[in-house]
């Protein structure tokens, strides 16, 4: 689990990122989780936006994605979810 200090650090790093995945009408599926997992391995930190036509609640989507990818849920702000997962191959972020 991340500490409050680590979450603040990750939020500041994520602030400038653009969402690279969108969850729409179909909701969360295995293929999406697989792709997000691969992206997390490369980037460690990423944003996912939940579109208005998504049938699921954004908090449910956040929990499904974080548990499916075994990633840390940094924050849900508006319709944007920030996820973090320490990379095994390309570690870039040094947590405080």
From TrEMBL:
Keywords: RNA-binding. The keyword RNA-binding applies. Pfam families: CRS1_YhbY. SMART domains: CRS1_YhbY. The keyword RNA-binding applies. Residues 1-96 form the CRM domain. This is Ribosome assembly RNA-binding protein YhbY. It comes from Robertmurraya beringensis.
């Amino acid at each position: 689990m991340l500490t409050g200090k680590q979450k603040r650090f990750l939020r500041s790093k994520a602030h400038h990122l653009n969402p690279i995945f969108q969850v729409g009408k179909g909701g969360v599926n295995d293929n999406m989780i697989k792709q997000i997992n691969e992206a997390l391995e490369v980037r460690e930190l990423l944003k996912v936006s939940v579109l208005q036509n998504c049938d699921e609640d954004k908090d449910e989507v956040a929990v499904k994605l974080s548990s499916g990818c075994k990633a840390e849920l940094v924050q849900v702000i508006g319709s944007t979810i920030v996820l973090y997962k320490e990379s095994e191959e390309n570690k870039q972020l040094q947590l405080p």
